């Protein structure tokens, strides 16, 4: 899975992208420009807690993204942890991710068929 790393790429997706949210995850999605490969980023803000807690949130998000078929062809996606991400079950998180992506205007994910 290719991840967004540069500040410039984050800023582009965050400023120009469409947003969606659920109680378990927030997303920003932007269509890729040109022949770039789609990317995913995982963010857990410091306000959530210490490093151990934030890293757990990102691990949980990473697994939900993998199970849902991210990265989506043609899209860069940033996933933001919320205060409920840490304690969410894998199924709750997948449903929340699907819901947030649908609100951002992205089509079906793996498992939606």
Automatic annotation (TrEMBL):
<dbReference type="InterPro" id="IPR014721">
    <property type="entry name" value="Ribsml_uS5_D2-typ_fold_subgr"/>
</dbReference>
<keyword id="KW-0540">Nuclease</keyword>
<keyword id="KW-0694">RNA-binding</keyword>
<dbReference type="GO" id="GO:0042781">
    <property type="term" value="F:3'-tRNA processing endoribonuclease activity"/>
</dbReference>
<dbReference type="InterPro" id="IPR020568">
    <property type="entry name" value="Ribosomal_Su5_D2-typ_SF"/>
</dbReference>
<dbReference type="Pfam" id="PF00825">
    <property type="entry name" value="Ribonuclease_P"/>
</dbReference>
<dbReference type="GO" id="GO:0004526">
    <property type="term" value="F:ribonuclease P activity"/>
</dbReference>
<keyword id="KW-0255">Endonuclease</keyword>
<dbReference type="GO" id="GO:0030677">
    <property type="term" value="C:ribonuclease P complex"/>
</dbReference>
<keyword id="KW-0378">Hydrolase</keyword>
<dbReference type="InterPro" id="IPR000100">
    <property type="entry name" value="RNase_P"/>
</dbReference>
<protein>
    <recommendedName>
        <fullName>Ribonuclease P protein component</fullName>
        <ecNumber>3.1.26.5</ecNumber>
    </recommendedName>
</protein>
<dbReference type="GO" id="GO:0000049">
    <property type="term" value="F:tRNA binding"/>
</dbReference>
<keyword id="KW-0819">tRNA processing</keyword>
């Amino acid at each position: 899975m290719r991840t967004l790393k540069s500040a410039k790429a984050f800023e582009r997706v965050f400023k120009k992208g469409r947003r969606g949210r659920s109680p378990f995850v927030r997303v920003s999605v932007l269509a890729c420009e040109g022949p770039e490969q789609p990317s995913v980023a995982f963010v857990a803000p410091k306000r959530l807690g210490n490093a151990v807690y934030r890293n757990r949130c990102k691990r949980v998000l990473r697994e939900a993204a993998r199970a849902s078929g991210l990265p989506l062809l043609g899209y860069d996606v940033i996933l933001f942890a919320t205060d409920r991400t840490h304690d969410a079950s894998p199924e709750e998180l997948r449903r929340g991710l699907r819901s947030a992506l649908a609100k951002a205007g992205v089509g079906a994910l793996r498992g939606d068929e």
